[in-house]
Amino acid sequence: MHTTGLSELIIQVDDVERVAKFYRDVVGLTPDESTPVDVPWFWTGEPGKSARFAVNDGRASLQSLTPFQELAPLTPEERRKKAHFAFEVPSDRFDDAVAQLKAKNIAIHGPLELAWMNARACYFWDPEGHLVEFWSPHVSE
User: Fold this and answer.
1) Residue 6: CB partners within 8 Å, gap ≥ 6?
2) What's the confidence (pLDDT) of residue 21?
């Protein structure tokens, strides 16, 4: 394998300001202040060391590989334009991350045990219908 991890992910949205606020205030991502204001970038983990995530208002179609399609608040046509992605959350912080979503009245699905991955996950949608996942591997004893 040639890759060592994800470098960046950019999702296409209609309301950049609203979606950027969601990822900052609800998901808890740290803004990357060194990037242009018109495309909000965030660190997905430790600033300067983790992959980056951005939202912009481009119109490129994104493939949807999301589970729970029948639960999405979108029509099948709209879902084809949306992405699914997961943020890794350390096992010892997973319950707090889920509680934070609930405290902000975010509709969630899960937590679910993913035995085939030896992990657990919680799914929720951002303001524009992208399916977001908090994914946490179980720590081996």
Assistant:
1) 44, 51
2) 95
